Please model this.
Amino acid sequence: MYGFEALTFNVHGGYLEAIVRGYRSGLLTAADYNNLCQCESLEDIKMHLSATEYGPYLQNEPSPLHTTTIVEKCTLKLVDEYKQMLCQATEPLSTFLEYITYGHMIDNVVLIVTGTLHERDVQELLEKCHPLGMFDSIATLAVAQNMRELYRLVLVDTPLAPYFSECITSEDLDDMNIEIMRNTLYKAYLQDFYRFCQKLGGATSEIMSDILAFEADRRAVNITINSIGTELTRDDRRKLYSNFGLLYPYGHEELAISEDIDQVRGVMEKYPPYQSIFSKLSYGESQMLDKAFYEEEVKRLCLAFEQQFHYGVFFAYMRLREQEIRNLMWISECVAQNQKSRVHDSVVFIF
Amino acid sequence: MGERVRGGCCPPMDLMRSEPMHLVQVIIPIESAHLTISYLGDLGLIQFKDLNAEKSPFQRTYANQIKRCGEMARKLRFFREQITKAEFSPAVISVTEADLNLDDLEVKLGELEAELVEINANGQKLQRSYNELAEYKLVIQKAGEFFQSALSSAEARQREYASNQSGEESLETPLLSEQEMTTDPSKQVKLGFVTGLVPREKSIAFERILFRATRGNVLLKQAVVDNPVTDPVSGEKVEKNVFVVFFSGERAKNKILKICDAFGANRYPFAEDLGKQAQTINEVSGRLSELKTTIDAGLVHRGNLLQTIGEQFEQWNFLVRREKSIYHTLNMLSIDVTKKCLVAEGWSPIFATKQIQDALHRATQDSNSQVDAIFQVLRTREMPPTYFRTNKFTSAFQEIVDAYGVAKYQEANPGVFTIVTFPFLFAVMFGDWGHGICLLLATLYLIIREKKLSSQKLGDIMEMTFGGRYVILLMALFSIYTGLIYNEFFSVPFELFSRSAYSCRDLSCSEATTVGLIKVRDTYPFGADPVWHSSRSELPFLNSLKMKMSILLGVAQMNLGIILSYFNAIFFANNINIWFQFIPQMIFLNGLFGYLSVLIIIKWCTGSKADLYHVMIYMFLSPTDELGENQLFPGQKITQLVLLLLALISVPWMLLPKPFLLKLQHDRHHGESYAPLPDSEESLQSEPNHDSHGHEEFEFSEIFVHQLIHTIEFVLGAVSNTASYLRLWALSLAHSELSTVFYEKVLLLAWGYNNIIILIVGIIVFIFATVGVLLVMETLSAFLHALRLHWVEFQNKFYEGDGYKFYPYSFALLDYEDE
Model:
């Protein structure tokens, strides 16, 4: 199973692994979150964050703060770190790092396309895009009228091009189509990423398979729950599931025919790793499912740091930071809207 | 060491032990708290303890004030950024405005910021329209060129066609012309076009997307704009291309417009008519010059504002930083339940008690408070911080020691001795008075320009050199001294003090050998006789001298280390350490290597030819053998036997009794835990020591293993450390050999050619080699080796180095923290 990573890994990857582990130690801790949850205003949050690694990014913000500014600046820090790592990386690590951003790219494409469909201003949409998933001609997406055009005009130049092979139709874009496109793309992306990690071999493939399999399963469950009660047929639904992961293939068969949340639950409880997630939820409840999944994901990502000489740490770090930014956003929103009682609803402690 | 004795107020050996400290408690009425802290900050002799460690920053009492200060600091940073952008240098001479109030300042800063922001916004707006117009002008010019060239080429073709028709009539021409002529007027579609500017780096992608979106039904013309254009939106200079896109149809137009937007290409209307073009250009130029004057006026206004800000910037900045630090300190104090007073706890040196009380009193008076602050000393078992009062001369040496570890509270400070021994050991390795003088000149430059250099920012390496300028000064002086002893000036010997004591007996004797030299005068009075240099026996003679000297220096320094451990034991009243550590260690080291040193001195004095290696080795291997010709003094065999026995005894002496005695002490201590408190002064001082032994779990095996390791370390260390001092000889040898090589193989060789160019080249190479290799690299390596000898060989004999530094709350230190 194990290659001889310990022997050669540090030649190219050692420096960056050290860097990323250093970054990781800058993640907010439970104590930080406890303090943040007690904040009375966004100024308090800024003050607390100024003692953390976010300090330099927030210190020059003028006083009436907004949640968006905080989130934007925190994301900026993540982007800066990512770019720095990407600059230093050599093959195959640089490809690996690029793979991490494809997910955001898909989301951005979907965001812009949906936005133009609803006739929103392109500039406004661009501001909402995740900076990690930006590519040169992203604004041009607004020109396209259907999938084929979308592909031919813009996406053929981006790394997403190969993922499009399955969803080129001449149909006009509508919400349903776009959602299907997103999931098809995501499926292709996950499968491609999975294959890539398998090719890398060693500890990277072992750890990344685990994380990606979890991701695939989570998406399968989400697709199922979201498609309940829509006109999506069972076959179409099954097509959106990735062809790896713990649920593949038998779980997918069962998920495809599930008609309500409790059936999904029944399917999932057959798989021991997911039992604990569903056992926390009461029957018929799907609100807290996201948080439960996030918690499980964070746990798995943290475990990736327990082993050395593999690329999983980079993926894990990016994901953990994103989770942290989600947490900060939630806390800031709660504080800004005086909903402090709900602050713990969606915060996932990382340490 | 005279520098250490300053003024009459201090005890003469105040660097030997860190300042006696005590934990003080100050109860400050809330109304005078701010002023009190400010006065204490001016004084800078108290280190506050954080009494609210469990509270998060925004829950503390003065969080709001800190937020305000942070906001003001942000505004100041904004000003600084603006000032540097406008390329003003903030005026250094600050107008000392009488007591600026924080609240006033806050209002003032707010106003200034608002004004500046408004001016900037206006300026930006103007600038933007200016840039747009400038782009427009460019577009008109460049696109005009397209149309003109297109027109002229069309005309040319027409003329060509006409001439063709009138001239020769080939087979093809009529067909072609007919086609053209017929298609043109009838089927001509009205072509639309869009003109604008696109960033150059995006131009290729732009063209590609245009091509794809319209399926090739466009004509794109681009022209490079030579100078970077200021982009109206971002305000940055960007390299751009002017483009003209020709297309047909309304749908294509929509697409193209969208693509232009997506690429950030600015579109501008363009009139085909030549006359109109000229008109627009005129209009645009007129408006451009108008805008230019407006913008200039705005800039002058902004400049004036920044100037006034710049004048007081430093003062404001200092005030804000000071206030922020005061509130930070206030936040560390615990607030009384009645909310009437604040309670501060902190360490301060005992000598500062009077000054602190003074400051408290002044603060009370100045703030018109009715109640005086209460100052009292607390008794504690905590270890106080270590505080040495250093000056600019001693601080660099203390840094050398602190870099290894900060001294435990009141333990003997090796820094005192480092001041002399460090440069001296360096000089032993760097003995050359020519190099020493170079080093001296360099450091004298730093010292003479001290005032100027210390105020400005230096580079990393320069900073370090400057910080250690007094170390380097002593190093240079000592290396001149040792250089005189070795009699080397860039490796050349000089007959400085008198003529050489030796001269040739007859003409046949050459300089390359000592054979045939006879002593004609008195012994050379100081240092090595110059005749040794370049003689055949130079190396054996100097090596033997330097090796023995290294051993002597080493044994002396290690003895000093052990003696310091005795002083520590006396000071902390630790008898066990005296009897079961200091004494056996002294016996062991001196029984073996002290004896060797004595033998060396005897050998020097008597000129005996005894082999000291042999003596030392056979002292262990067969101590009872006769010494024969290696006998240096009568009774040597007996002496050696006794010394060997003593050394052997001292090993178990070091190892065994101490752990058992500690156990005994612990048991007894345990038994009388309810005994009356010891009241004598000395037991108070040794309290922390007993404490750490008493209250921790007493694990006998652990103590024993610890002692075992200690003993082994010392016994092996005695041998290896002594050997380690031989580096003094080795480096000194390397230094002198290197400089000889550079002198002989470069300078003398070049001299020998009798060619001025070769000589110049030779001198240049010699200078670079001397500066680069000998003065820089050798200095570094000798410095590091001296450092090692101090940290390892010297300090491991006594130095614990597990204390922590005293960081007083002081405004003077504020500058360094924030930068």
In short: Chain A touches chain B through 28 residues (CB under 8 Å). Chain A has 17 helices and no strands. Chain A has a mean pLDDT of 85. Residues 175-200 of chain A form the longest helix (26 residues).
